[in-house]
Amino acid sequence: MLESRILILSGVNLGLLGQRQPEIYGTDTLDDYIARARQRAEILNATVDDLQSDSEAVIVEAIAAARSTHDAIIINPGAFTHYSWAIHDALAAFDGPVVELHISNPNSREAWRHTSVVSPVANAVIAGLGGHGYELAVEAVVGILG
Ligand code: CA2
Fold first, then answer.
1. Contact yes or no for 47/66 (Cβ under 8 A)
2. How far apart are the CA of 85 and the centre of ligand 1, in A?
3. How many Å from the N-terminal Cα to the C-terminal Cα in the chain?
4. Of 80, 76, 84, 82, nearest to 112 (Cα)?
5. HSE (CB half, 13 Å, CA atoms) of 82?
């Protein structure tokens, strides 16, 4: 069976994880979360590439490039979640499964976090489970890819 190629995209400010607001995001860094995803992927015959950027344009370009290099996308857009129609449109043009992932549960926080413009183009949303969500997201996309 061919390996599933998964791209994990992390948006704005996610590079700061582990440095501030541990009561919301825990003490793990983004690298720790990606490592958990990669460990689960190895068990499931999948590979994980990852990219974090504070630039919306870089994320959009990465999604476009993934059309020919990856089978599935897991994306935690950070605050882009709540307003980036550019990321919405880029994901809509991606043929494989897309899982939207959040460390916290945005729906239990401020009202402006309750809107996601990414959810309408995602196969599934995982939120509020901290680092475990990264493992579950890998399982989800591998399951969807069959
Ligand atoms: O819960 C999530 O994963 C979020 O995507 C995290 C975003 C937030 O804007 C979303 O509403 C929910 C924020 C990521 C950046 O977090 C920081 C961590 C440490 C210090 C400053 C920001």
1. no
2. 18
3. 11
4. 82
5. 13
The pair of three-digit structure tokens given for residue 142, joined into one six-digit string: 């591998």
Residue 4 above 90 pLDDT? yes
Per-residue confidence at 131, pLDDT binned at 50, 70, 90?
Answer: very high
Alpha helices, DSSP H, located in the chain: 22-25, 30-43, 56-66, 85-92, 132-145
| pTM (predicted TM-score) | 0.97
Tell whether ligand 1 has an atom less than 6 A from the beta carbon of residue 5.
no
DSSP bridge partners of 50: 8
**98-102/124-127 β-pairing:** parallel
Measure 12 CA to ligand 1 centroid, in angstroms: 8
Instruction: Specify whether the CB–CB gap between 23 and 52 falls below 8 A.
Output: no
How far, rounded to the nearest angstrom, does the alpha carbon of residue 67 sit from its chain's CA centroid?
16
What fold characterizes domain 4-145? Rossmann fold (3.40.50)
By annotation, the residues acting in catalysis are 25, 102
Tell me the per-residue pLDDT of 36-69, one tens digit each, with 9 for 90 and over.
999 999 999 999 999 999 999 999 999 999 999 9
The 10s digit of each residue's pLDDT in 16-27 is: 999 888 999 989
